[in-house]
Specification:
Blueprint lengths: L1 H36 L4 H15 L9 E2 L10 H6 L1 H5 L9 H8 L3 H15 L5 H4 L6 E8 L6 E14 L13 E12 L2 E12 L6
Parallel strand pairs: 1-2
Antiparallel strand pairs: 2-3, 3-4, 4-5
């Protein structure tokens, strides 16, 4: 009887020990998953955007520019899609003409992109990072850069040259990015190992007739 009770106690101990081990493993796995899903710091975000800007100006252009401090949607040609500008001048324009090329280079499927797009937008869309504004090389300019949220492999940007000069303090929540402009362009940055591996000019249009 004593032996039977002892065996039962040992089985209980083994069960409790096994449960503790399984709990520890599940906690470790869930903890790692949470860490992987965390957003990078705002300083790291600014560093990535800075590298994108440096790639744009690697030819030594001295053009002044401002950086809008709020993240835009993570997508191809967002400014053009929102305003249907290219359709007005080029009927039937394909806003995703470079999408297939970019996804192939990243070895992503359409569903991969959709999943990553949703995650990036959840983390970044309409969020402000004032460190981005400090990347501006002037306090006043006609040119403003709008960056998407950041994926470790991909960043989008819209570049708009406005008719009127813009002051850095104007780049707040009430700023109207759809005011009259001279030209606009979309740029795609492919990132690898924290560096800009490739840059693609996605779309562009000049409409200087809008300016007085």
């Amino acid at each position: 009887m004593k032996i039977k009770n002892l065996m039962q106690k040992n089985n209980i101990k083994k069960t409790l020990l096994l449960g503790a081990i399984l709990f520890a493993i599940s906690f470790t796995i869930s903890g790692c998953g949470k860490k992987d899903a965390e957003k990078i710091s705002q300083q790291d975000e600014a560093n990535i955007i800075k590298k994108c800007i440096e790639r744009l100006y690697q030819n030594g252009s001295k053009q002044s520019y401002l950086i809008f401090p709020k993240y835009e949607a993570f997508d191809f040609n967002t400014f053009f899609k929102e305003n249907k500008i290219l359709e007005k001048y080029h009927k039937g324009y394909n806003y995703d003409k470079n999408k297939k090329k970019v996804l192939q280079s990243l070895q992503w499927s359409d569903s991969d992109f959709t999943q990553k797009q949703q995650k990036v937008n959840e983390n970044y869309l309409n969020r402000t990072n004032l460190l981005l504004q400090k990347l501006s090389n002037s306090n006043v300019s006609h040119t403003v850069y709008f960056f998407s949220g950041i994926h470790e492999n991909l960043v989008f940007a819209n570049v708009i040259d406005y008719c009127d000069s813009i002051k850095s303090q104007d780049l707040n929540r009430s700023f109207n990015k759809n005011q009259k402009f001279m030209s606009a362009g979309s740029v795609i940055f492919i990132i690898k190992g924290g560096k800009v591996k490739d840059m693609i000019i996605d779309s562009g249009i000049s409409v200087e007739t809008q300016c007085p």
